[in-house]
Design goal:
heterodimer; A: Rossmann fold; Fumarate Reductase Iron-sulfur Protein, Chain B, domain 2; 2 domains; B: two-stranded antiparallel ribbon; 16 helices; 1% strand; globular; binds iron/sulfur cluster
Chain lengths: 515, 340
């Protein structure tokens, strides 16, 4: 391993448990009897359903569309009939449910015509962005951020493109398998992105213990014309694959607090996302499936499955031979950053990279939280150099402002503090909730500000109308002599209406312009 | 095409218990601390007789009773708190610090003070700003200076020990009650300096003290190796003390004892590895801990050399406990992505 330009503080050496799932090739999970598509978007609003109950859909049909959101449209992932549009649990850290379009599959899996292929060596950046939106590409590493929006965000010039294949979270092995089996697609995608972003450096990072993935990348590199891409091994230290930590490792630079990596000229993309980008561009493929690691002591045959989006988790477990007797907890994602869900009827959505069914007592069932003994182990483990014990003190006492002063918002929710806490305090859980609370406070403030702006705009309009009326009255007075022609009157009236309209649209703009 | 039947939904409970644990458990740490005290304890028994064992047992018994009582009064379940063994550690530290032949009520009262006034009144483990054992020790020292400052100069047999501890008050005491306690300051009036600072300063005045300190050092190093205590604190205490001692020793070696004397006398090693390292009452940030620990080292020297109190460690630790929140506040590490 070559020496890297940077390192990050804290972090943990965790047992990988990867070999549970990464031994056999990715397998298609098959078509479930039902597919569920949650309409909830990142901004909390529902996408507009474009189908109604009874409609027949085919694989690739757009069934719901963006609603004031960056989110791409939602596509059906197989053919069948819409049987319901109703509330259903979805994969979300807060355990919320969402309006879902439920499709009963017909097993024929008929597709609509694919999108036209783009010329990956010459297409314009704009056409690529349009394609990514159209094909429904979002980040597949777990965050689910719309890729077109992420690439567009860069106002500063991007000089470094980082492909994140450092799958540092225990148990998860979908990127590992993807790199082993489809390294060429990833490199093709990297070349395409590098050209469209116009960046100088392209790096692919894999973890030190993903040796086979590294070899596959090397092989694909020498087979194709990819010498400009650097393939780098990073230490197997959690969270080396965290976006900010990876950037720190590879560039020695830190992303400023509250900013995006683009602020320092870096764009980070998960390798699976890059492969999807390539397929969307070169083959016109829509993102309607993803690789999911189904693993843990609670699953009979852990493995990586190619899963149609909308497939219920329970169906995947069935494909893996069902639950074992000791199945205990159901986690979406890995044991560090994942979250528990309460039902296996929940469908797979784009950010779901792993399903972990824990066995009773493994990972060790954790006793009830004890008081904090201020041992500082959490601070030592924190890759963001925060003081989790102080954060906890303040969030627990509902002192949100103090917690913000201690940089609550810089917490990447990696879970290192949790893992080392000798008192088993659910720190991250607490921090997530506090961040949610701070977010909704912010939203409330924003909407209050919007309301005020709306109010002020209306006030201004009223005053303007008043002034106009007075003016008109004066004019009428002046024109009593009969000078002003009806035409002038008409023009004045038109101008007045136009102004009123302008004020109105100004007001409505301020309301709808939710960032 | 045939369809798979709809799978039956299986429901799970949301629980936070399915997490990775990569660290130590409080209870395990406390066990290790107790185990690490054994070499020092053995040295103490060897040097001054079985009194210390009796004191420790008395302390542990009073601590458990005191803690259960307090938890009952606060209507908290007793089990989790007793289980974490922290009360036991407090008790043993105190038992090791009082003179081996002190009457039984001294250690009993001291332990109750430590548990009740040092810990439970603040809301139990984790909320106490002061090191409970040192609170107990300080109260004892102020209240019973007579009983607290006499230590057998040579090993005393079991019978005699029990008699001294449980016998009637004012019954005759063994003759050998002449020495300072381990926590006692080697306040150094010039005369004492002369008698102690042997050439090279490697052999400190009190033979028994240095064996006991060696025992604690051994246990401490073991804890360090297992990463159960923060080496910054131990190193800081020793560095602070050594720096002061060296400075004055070089200045005037006839008046001031050598650093080695300070390192291996009194409760230096106990403080550096077992008392100052109590995380609850220490600073928590890395830089804060350096300052906190060095402060303890310096204060031990100051109190030993010029202090009005005969004891260095307890007051040094308590004083620095006071500064911990402030230290924490001013030594917050630079978080990721914030300007340097
Ligand atoms: S690791 Fe747990 S007990 Fe230790 S300081 Fe952090 S929160 Fe407190
Ligand atoms: S979850 Fe947050 S506070 Fe805890 S270690 Fe990770 S970044 Fe630090």
């Amino acid at each position: 391993m070559t020496t890297l330009p940077g390192r990050f503080p804290g972090g943990l050496e965790l047992e990988g448990h990867k070999s549970l799932a990464n031994q056999c090739p990715i397998r298609f999970a098959g078509l479930p009897p039902r597919l569920l598509f949650p309409l909830r978007q990142r901004n909390g609003e529902n996408a507009r359903a474009l189908v109604s109950i009874g409609d027949l859909v085919r694989r690739g049909s757009v069934i719901a569309g963006g609603n004031q959101s960056l989110d791409p449209p939602i596509h059906a992932s197989s053919s069948g009939r819409v049987i319901a549009i109703e509330d259903h649990g979805m994969a979300h850290p807060a355990g919320i449910s969402s309006r879902c379009i439920i499709i009963e599959t017909d097993g024929l899996d008929e597709s609509i015509a694919a999108l036209p292929a783009l010329d990956t060596t010459h297409c314009s950046p704009e056409s690529l962005l349009d394609r990514l939106h159209e094909a429904g590409i979002v980040g597949l590493g777990g965050a689910g951020f719309p890729t077109a929006a992420k690439l567009l965000k860069g106002k500063t010039a991007i000089d470094t493109l980082i492909l994140n294949g450092a799958e540092c979270e225990p148990y998860i092995a979908c990127d590992d398998r993807l790199l082993r089996e489809r390294a060429n697609e990833v490199l093709q995608g990297a070349a395409l992105l590098q050209r469209c972003l116009g960046c100088r450096t392209t790096l692919i990072a894999v973890e030190g213990d993903m040796r086979l993935a590294w070899q596959a990348l090397k092989a694909a590199q020498s087979a194709g014309d990819f010498d400009f891409i650097q393939i780098i091994q990073v230490p197997s230290r959690y969270p080396a694959g965290g976006e900010r930590q990876l950037i720190q490792l590879l560039t020695g630079r830190e992303v400023p607090s509250g900013a995006l990596p683009a602020a320092i000229g870096v764009i980070c993309q998960n390798v699976a996302t890059v492969a999807a980008i390539y397929r969307a561009a070169a083959h016109g493929e829509i993102l309607d499936s993803r690789i999911v690691t189904v693993t843990g002591a609670g699953v009979q045959t852990p493995q990586n499955l190619e899963v149609r989006l909308g497939t219920p988790i329970g169906f995947l477990i069935e494909q893996c031979g069902g639950y074992t007797g000791q199945a205990h907890g159901l986690i979406v994602g890995g044991p560090m950053m994942g979250y528990t869900v309460n039902s296996d009827a929940i469908p797979v959505t784009k950010p779901v990279n792993a399903i972990l069914v824990t066995g009773a007592g493994s990972p060790a069932t954790i006793p009830d939280p004890q008081p904090c003994i201020r041992c500082g182990a959490c601070a030592e483990a924190c890759p963001a150099s925060l003081l989790p014990q102080q954060l906890y003190w303040h969030t627990h006492a509902q002192q949100l402002q103090r917690a913000l002063d201690y940089h609550l918002l810089d917490c990447i929710e990696c879970g290192c503090c949790d893992a080392v806490c000798p008192s088993h305090i659910p720190l991250v859980h607490e921090f997530r909730q506090a961040k949610q609370a701070s977010l909704s406070q912010q939203r409330a403030r924003d909407s209050a500000a919007h309301a005020r702006m709306r109010f002020e705009a209306r006030q201004a309009r009223k005053e303007q109308e008043q002034r106009d009326r007075e003016l008109a009255a004066q004019r009428r007075k002046a024109s009593l002599g009969g000078h002003a022609s009806p035409k002038i009157q008409e023009a004045l009236e038109r101008a007045r209406q136009k102004r009123a309209k302008q004020n109105e649209s100004l007001a409505s703009e301020t309301t709808h312009n939710d960032p | 095409m045939t369809h798979n039947p709809l799978p039956v939904e299986r429901r799970f409970t949301h629980d936070l218990s399915s997490r990775v644990t990569a660290g130590h458990q409080v209870r395990d740490v406390m066990w290790a601390v107790i185990a690490a005290l054994v070499p020092g304890l053995l040295a103490l028994i060897w040097q001054s007789g079985p009194g210390v064992l009796v004191q420790c047992s008395l302390a542990v018994a009073s601590a458990l009773i005191g803690e259960s009582m307090a938890l009952k009064l606060r209507s908290r379940p007793a089990r989790p708190s007793l289980n974490d063994l922290s009360a036991m550690v407090t008790a043993i530290l105190l038992g090791l610090s009082v003179p081996g032949l002190a009457p039984w009520w001294v250690i009993t009262l001291g332990t109750l003070f430590a548990i009740l006034l040092g810990k439970q009144v603040y809301g139990g483990l984790g909320c106490n700003p002061f090191n409970p054992a040192m609170v107990g020790y300080a109260i004892l020292l102020v209240s019973f200076p007579q009983e607290m400052t006499h230590w057998p100069a040579e090993p005393v047999g079991l019978g005699e020990t029990l008699h001294a501890i449980f016998g009637e008050m004012d019954s005759h005491r063994p003759d050998a009650l002449a020495m300072a306690t381990p926590l006692d300051a080697s306040r150094t009036p010039p005369a004492m300096g002369h008698s102690t600072a042997t050439p090279g300063g490697l052999v400190p005045a009190s033979h028994s003290d240095s064996w006991v300190n060696l025992g604690y050092l051994l246990g401490g190093l073991w804890l360090l190796r297992r990463k159960l205590i923060d080496g910054r604190i131990s190193a800081g205490v020793l560095a602070g003390l050594t720096a002061c001692a060296l400075g004055f020793y070089l200045e005037d070696s006839s008046r001031y004892p050598s650093p080695a004397f300070h390192l291996f006398s009194g409760a230096t090693m106990l403080a550096a590895f077992f008392i100052a390292t109590d995380p609850v009452s220490a600073a928590t940030t890395p830089r804060g801990r350096w300052i906190y620990a060095a402060g303890i080292g310096v204060l031990i020297y100051v109190i030993r050399t010029w202090g009005g109190y005969p004891d260095g460690v307890a007051f040094a630790v308590l004083l620095m406990n006071l500064t911990a929140p402030t230290l924490d506040h001013f030594t917050r590490p630079r978080a990721y992505g914030h300007p340097r």
